[in-house]
From TrEMBL:
This is Phosphatase PAP2 family protein. Coiled coil: none annotated. The chain crosses the membrane at residues 37-61, 81-104, 116-139, 159-180, 187-208, 214-231. It comes from Streptomyces sp. R11. The keyword Electron transport does not apply. It holds the Pfam family PAP2. Keywords: Membrane, Transmembrane, Transmembrane helix. CDD domains: PAP2_like_2. The keyword Chaperone does not apply.
Amino acid sequence: MCTERKLTRLDRVFARLDREPERPAHIDVPRMTRHRVVLFTSTLAFYVAIVWAILITSWLVRLDWQVMFFRPYQQWAEIHAFVDYYVVLGQRGPTAVMVAAWLGWRSWRQHTLRPLLALGVSLLLLNVTVGAAKIGMGRLGPHYATTVGSNEMWLGGDIFPSGHTANAVVTWGILAYLASTPRARRWLSALSAVTSLGVGLSTVYLGTHWLSDVLLGWAAGLLILLALPWFEPLIARSEARIFDVRDRWRERRAGAVAVPTAPVEAPVLLKPHPVAVDDEAAAREVASPAHSPRTTVHPPVYLAPGPHTARGERTPVTPAGSRRPPHTERIARGPAQPARPLTGG
């Protein structure tokens, strides 16, 4: 009896990862609905109300000073080490790298640049809006406060609103914004809300921000996420333009690499040329000259000029570069002379 193994959730995840990258047939792009417009307007009113409460030095400023004098980092010193690491989830550099890596993998799997472009637009809006508010209001932080009970505005600071809190809202909230299913969007929205809430309270615990800074940071990050549907047409046009440039570059590169080939012509059939009788005889004589009776033997040709002399009549020559001395007393060999008769005496 053969039974098939039931696939677990982990098996289904790996099977999905092994599939070839493909662009989804339908991408759910959030639209600026009436409900979202109401949320955006309410959040903007909350933002303005917090700024106004700080400007007039209302009860919110007194609450900031009370929390600062409470010194949470001394009241709960045992969690100080954990909070030091947890607050990194609001730093722009590490969080942007992690989220960009995940969205880049999603872009490659789905053959779309929308996740990366949406992240880029949200971070650009975050830098412009939050940075301008920080520089414009110039509020000092709790560690640099000068007058007890004052709002510390326009003194050259840069902590209002909280950049850590706004960055946590935008960076982790973009994952919920780009979720492909409603269930994933709900879970990721709750997770990003808890993460950004913890990051904001961590800055208050460490004494780097006032409580009102964190409230304004939450509002600033939420405004950016709620306004993203207005930038979806710009994201779509940018994606189409980038893909168009990529396709033209590929075509130009393929045209530069390809080598033009000449057209192949049809083969030409060659016919044998008629040979005359005399030509056949001449061809036979050229093909077999050794058997032809008219073959003549030419005398050998000497390469050296001048008359040929016998070996005995040649003058001895010492080779160039030889170490042997020249034989001046040596005489040239000639014809043998008759022996001289021996005489007595």
